[in-house]
Design a protein that fits this description.
With 114 residues, the protein is α+β, with helices and mostly antiparallel strands. 21% of the residues lie in helices and 22% in strands. The protein is built from two helices and five strands; from the N terminus they run H-E-E-E-H-E-E. Strands 1-2-3-5-4 form a five-stranded antiparallel beta sheet, with helices on one face. The termini are far apart. The structure holds 2'-deoxyguanosine-5'-monophosphate. 2'-deoxyguanosine-5'-monophosphate (DGP) binds next to strand 2.
Length: 114
């Protein structure tokens, strides 16, 4: 999508620090990290959020979750744990309208989810 920030990152028009990439998924470090590891995993196909996930092939969706696991492993998070978050819509403070999964870890997370 032309005016989508994350589509521009996938295209390389906006620089990012790549952590993982395959034919369906791109993962890169969040510009404003909330934890020692904070990586965004996004599908290369543009969909706005979890609310629009029916527009995504099951294979693309599965690839996103698999990439979250691969990123967690490559970042050394699988032993102590990590959190995967996807904000969806205004109440959840979604600021970029391209489906993304935050992979957070490297410290003890709070018990409160929100
Ligand atoms: P959310 O609030 O769930 O929509 O998360 C969007 C995230 O995207 C937020 O944590 C900051 C990150 N972000 C926004 N702009 C950029 C950017 O240009 N580069 C990178 N690496 N991350 C960005």
């Amino acid at each position: 999508m032309n005016d989508c920030l994350f589509c521009k990152i996938i295209a390389g028009d906006i620089p990012s620090t790549k952590v993982y990439e395959d034919e369906k998924v791109y993962a890169f470090r969040d510009i404003n990290p909330q934890a020692p590891t904070h990586v965004l995993v996004i599908p290369k196909k543009h969909v706005a959020s979890v609310a629009a996930v029916d527009e995504l092939d099951d294979a693309d969706l599965a690839a996103c979750l698999r990439a979250c696991r691969l990123v967690a492993q490559s970042e050394g998070l699988t032993e102590k744990g990590f959190r995967v978050v996807s904000n969806c819509g205004d109440d959840a403070c979604q600021s970029v309208k391209h489906l993304h999964f935050h992979v957070l870890g490297g410290r003890q997370m709070g018990e409160q989810m929100a």
